[in-house]
Automatic annotation (TrEMBL):
This is histidine kinase. Residues 20-241 form the Histidine kinase domain. The lineage of its organism: Bacteria, Pseudomonadati, Pseudomonadota, Alphaproteobacteria, Hyphomicrobiales. It comes from the Bacteria.
Amino acid sequence: AEEALRHAQKMEAVGQLTGGVAHDFNNLLTVIKSSVEFLQRPDLPAERRSRYLAAVSDTVDRAAKLTSQLLSFARRQALKPEVFDVGERLASVADMLNAVTGARIRIDTTVPDVPCHVRADLSQFETALVNMVVNARDAMDGAGTLTLRLTCAATLPGIRGHAEASGRFAALAIADEGVGIAPDLLSRIFEPFFTTKEVGKGTGLGLSQVIGFAKQSGGDVDVTSEPGRGTTFTLYLPQVEAPVPAEIRREVRSGGGDR
Ligand code: ADP
């Protein structure tokens, strides 16, 4: 649990880091925009023109450096898919999630009796979960019930214009009693850097991580919301057969007809 909490704190630090980068980037864009506005003046003296041009060029260089730093940071986290039971993972991160939400939010978790295996990157799964739980906490203003419900062998519904997908999915619904999301914003929440939170609180990168992870794993994310009542995010991941434990595999191999 202690390690899980450290992980959550690390994720918050990563959020702050990327938020800081986004903020710096915005400042650079502001410099470029105002320089270009000056450059559009027909009466601008030649000496000032070349100064503004140099400023634009310099600022573009700094922006390029910033994005390449961000990219090399992102690349370090290559996906390492592994097979795990979603219900089992939910149990093992329960303490961490409670630490994230605080004492005034009750987390009500329901998992099926049968195991529900998926193949995905485990740390990205936990990051996605934390991102959605942090959003739920913020939407609930720190109090209420947060419901986590895992369903096995679900079908992936048609989402955002895509057809319903066949196959079996593990569906993890995260339902909050928060402020909800206005219908006209629903289509924008997954965009990188889209946030309605105040500066320094939101990065707008949480849900883009969630949807990126879901799609790279062969799944998707659905959202339904009722303003004033709450929001439900459902993470779909393709279900796989349970892995055969190594010792059983060995038995089968040695027991099966040696030539
Ligand atoms: P951030 O949390 O940094 O703002 P996200 O990408 O995680 O970035 O979320 C983007 C936006 O989507 C939030 O700013 C908020 O407006 C909205 N949102 C996400 N989850 C919820 C939720 N559970 N309830 C209400 N609004 C939400």
